[in-house]
Amino acid sequence: xxxxxxxxxxxxxxxxxxxxxxxxxxxxxxxxxxxxxxxxxxxxxxxxxxxxxxxxxxxxxxxxxxxxxxxxxxxxxxxxxxxxxxxxxxxxxxxxxxxxxxxxxxxxxxxxxxxxxxxxxxxxxxxxxxxxxxxxxxxxxxxxxxxxxxxxxxxxxxxxxxxxxxxxxxxxxxxxxxxxxxxxxxxxxxxxxxxxxxxxxxxxxxxxxxxxxxxxxxxxxxxxxxxxxxxxxxxxxxxxxxxxxxxxxxxxxxxxxxxxxxxxxxxxxxxxxxxxxxxxxxxxx
Length: 285
Ligand SMILES: Nc1ncnc2c1ncn2[C@@H]1O[C@H](COP(=O)(O)OP(=O)(O)O)[C@@H](O)[C@H]1O
Ligand SMILES: [Mg+2]
Known about the structure:
By secondary structure, the chain is an alpha/beta fold. It folds into two domains: about 5-45 and about 55-130 and about 230-255 and about 265-280, no CATH class; about 135-220. It is built from ten helices and six strands; from the N terminus they run αββαβαββααααααβα. Strands 3-6-4-5 form a four-stranded parallel β-sheet, covered by helices on one side. The protein has a two-stranded antiparallel ribbon with strand order 1-2. The relative contact order is 0.15.
């Protein structure tokens, strides 16, 4: 068996799966694409972790777009964190050209330019659906983490949440939180301490400064009503294709706290509402 024959036979047997799979491209040997020798990945493995690595210009972004589109076509909703702003092109059909035609021919998979049902979302002031969460929903643990509070300060936040909960005081945005903190160290101090224990004004002062720091990164645009609903991310379009949800984050790289706040809240929400066993709903996979 020649080198090439062995290569073809190895790839062919290596990429034979039961259930549906996604074509990623065609195999290359010594820089030559072997026509129709497809490289695939089983759909049922897409709930695992993956890494796409390569130098600039080697096709990482295209690969991500391709995988997103293929998942959407298989009825799976996709959530993309678009940090560089290069993924949103999925929303519009592209245009074909001789280079692409040649590539399609070599891979041996049908292809036509095609836009996907997409939703562009933002957590700052860009165009798109604004994603928000209330301070209450965010909860004392995540909030303490994001404000980088120590145990004592975190304890005060937990107490403030409890106090608001007991008295049905809504904690919607950071203004609400600041108001309650101020109340707790001034006119409300005696009342709160009677029920919940001592609160040091110095500790409250430190927390307030950290809240202001978070605000200065634009966090007030994120905290408040109406809060995002994970179910919206699972929508399908009228053809049964999954929506591709693209969160535009290209303007918040210089706001690390806002970014990590946001990631923590959305991921904890998704992990709670979308357990891994969802995959069993797709019997043909
Ligand atoms: N599989 C491929 N075959 C041919 N051209 C490709 C392929 N993937 C990407 N390209 C082209 O290569 C260029 C760089 O791709 P891109 O995905 O932006 O790379 P990266 O994100 O790794 O920097 C783009 O012009 C794209 O159209
Ligand atoms: Mg790229």
